[in-house]
């Protein structure tokens, strides 16, 4: 089941902003937890299994605890002190803030993973230009960049296979990954230069009115998705306010 099938990519983008923006103004753990529960429930309905969500969202799962560490060490002190050294001051309140920050990173990051799955760059470009009325140069550059991004994994695999065939994979791992990253950077710069020249030769850099081959507009289903995203954000904040856990940014 995929309720987001044939939904305009702009709707997905706006839905992420509507759902996550209110969560940025509070630091309580209740609203973040409610938002995470809603995300977990909605994932299968959006055509994203839990395995796929974990696979695509591993950087967010990695960043969440890392974001909480500075808050635990340097957050607003309060309650019992557990550890203190120089500027570091770990207390009950700082640990609570650290947990809330970690949950909030997940609550803000996972919707991006959920709603960006299977988005076609060309459809996104059509929506940005025709629905949001963004400049054509910016839209075309974005579409080209997203197209090139899909080739990144293939480039990495090709370079790893090339180095393995030449016996370079058995060297120091740090040096190996550094050389791989440098080679990938060089390849990306060369490809970007060729792409920019090709696009300019085909008239993509010209200003003025530009027509689009495919029509992109919002229909009834798109507005329903936006309303659901707004309702989810309202429920998360409403539960936090009702339980008395709502904490504005001033709590820092």
UniProtKB/TrEMBL annotation:
Membrane topology: Multi-pass membrane protein
Cleaved signal peptide residues: none
TM region positions: 29-50, 57-75, 95-117, 223-248
CDD domains in the cross-refs: EcfT
UniProt-annotated location(s): Membrane
Primary location recorded for the protein, binned into one broad class: membrane
Keywords in alphabetical order: Cell membrane, Membrane, Transmembrane, Transmembrane helix
InterPro entries xref list: ABC/ECF_trnsptr_transmembrane, ECF_transporter_component
Domain of life: Bacteria
Name this polypeptide is given: Energy-coupling factor transporter transmembrane component T
Native source organism of the sequence: Corynebacterium breve
Phylogenetic lineage: Bacteria, Bacillati, Actinomycetota, Actinomycetes, Mycobacteriales
């Amino acid at each position: 089941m995929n309720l987001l099938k044939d939904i305009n990519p702009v709707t997905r983008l706006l839905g992420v902003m509507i759902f996550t923006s209110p969560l940025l103004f509070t630091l309580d753990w209740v609203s973040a937890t409610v938002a995470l529960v809603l995300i977990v429930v909605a994932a299968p309905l959006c055509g994203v299994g839990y395995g796929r969500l974990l696979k695509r969202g591993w950087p967010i799962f990695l960043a969440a605890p890392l974001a909480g560490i500075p808050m635990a060490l340097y957050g607003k002190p309060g309650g019992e002190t557990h550890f203190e050294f120089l500027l570091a001051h770990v207390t009950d309140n700082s640990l609570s803030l650290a947990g809330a920050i970690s949950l909030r990173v997940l609550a803000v990051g996972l919707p991006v993973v959920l709603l960006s799955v299977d988005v076609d760059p060309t459809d996104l470009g059509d929506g940005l230009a025709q629905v949001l009325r963004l400049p054509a140069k910016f839209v075309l550059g974005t579409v080209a960049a997203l197209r090139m991004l899909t080739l990144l994994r293939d480039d990495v695999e090709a370079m790893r296979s090339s180095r393995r065939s030449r016996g370079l994979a058995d060297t120091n791992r740090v040096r190996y990954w550094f050389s791989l990253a440098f080679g990938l950077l060089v390849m990306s710069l060369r490809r970007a230069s060729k792409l920019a020249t090709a696009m300019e030769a085909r008239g993509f850099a010209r200003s003025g009115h530009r027509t689009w081959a495919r029509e992109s507009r919002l229909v009834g289903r798109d507005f329903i998705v936006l309303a659901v995203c707004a309702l989810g954000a309202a429920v998360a904040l409403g539960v936090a306010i009702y339980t008395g856990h709502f904490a504005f940014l001033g709590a820092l």
